[in-house]
Amino acid sequence: MPVLLTPPVLHMPTHEAEAVVLRQYSLSDSDLIIIMITREYGKIRATAPGAKKPKSRLGACLEPLTRIRLEYSSREGRDLVQIRQAELVHSYLGNNRSLEKMCVFSYFAEIVNEIVQDNQANYTLYRLLLAALDSGEQMTRFLPLVRYFEIWCLRLSGLFPNYAYCSNCGKCVKDEGFFAWLEAGQSRCWECAQGRGLRIGKEAAGALEAIAKLSPGQFGSKPLGKEAAQELERLSQRLLEMHLEKRFKSYRIMTEALQEM
Ligand SMILES: [Zn+2]
Known about the structure:
This protein folds into 2 domains: 14-91, CATH 2.40.50.140; 115-259, Recombination protein O, C-terminal domain (de novo design (two linked rop proteins), Up-down Bundle). It is built from 9 helices and 8 strands. It has helices at 57-61, 99-115, 123-137, 143-156, 190-193, 202-213, 216-220, 226-244, 249-259; strands at 14-26, 32-38, 42-48, 66-73, 80-91, 178-181, 186-188, 198-200. A 5-stranded mixed β-barrel has the order 1-2-3-5-4. Strands 7-6-8 form a 3-stranded antiparallel β-sheet. The protein is elongated, with a radius of gyration of 22 Å. The protein binds zinc ion.
């Protein structure tokens, strides 16, 4: 009896996910590499075969800052998965794009790309990104939203210290402001700090409280004084830099774009 040789079946399980595209790179003349945050599996890197071809329907869904539903296959031990299908849910840089919005949203994508873990679901970070993009779509002034987003990203990554009490005398400082001692992750009241540390005045301290309680749309539409905005900016930039050990390229570009508004 002849022996039937059947070729080994490659085991390539398929998955379904919802995602926001963070970046894309060119892999070859016709293929792209896509980096995205998925609702279900955290950050994944995927190849998108044929997506660079001019008439590719796949390519149209995979621009940065689009929300998609996708099906992909993965092979054990391999870092890159392969996109089989994608369907556009929403393009955040679609019809109504302005330079400011593009810069702000690209900055959001760069922060998320840095802090989200590979293949590890982070549903709250995914929700935060969607909520910030959704409310940013309706806005014309972005600074409060940007501060909100940075601080929540730090919080969700466990990188934002509890600044409620003076670490020296125990006094509650969250209402009247404090000096942040960044390296120690502590706050000091006016008396104990004696001018050392990063000043967070009364309005900025109040804004930190509001950020913890409000949605991005609510906080983003509140007025935020120039001094408080600068104090929060210094705080979040120093914390991001200290923990991620990098400066964001998109941050500098965004800052220039927003200054011209
Ligand atoms: Zn004190």
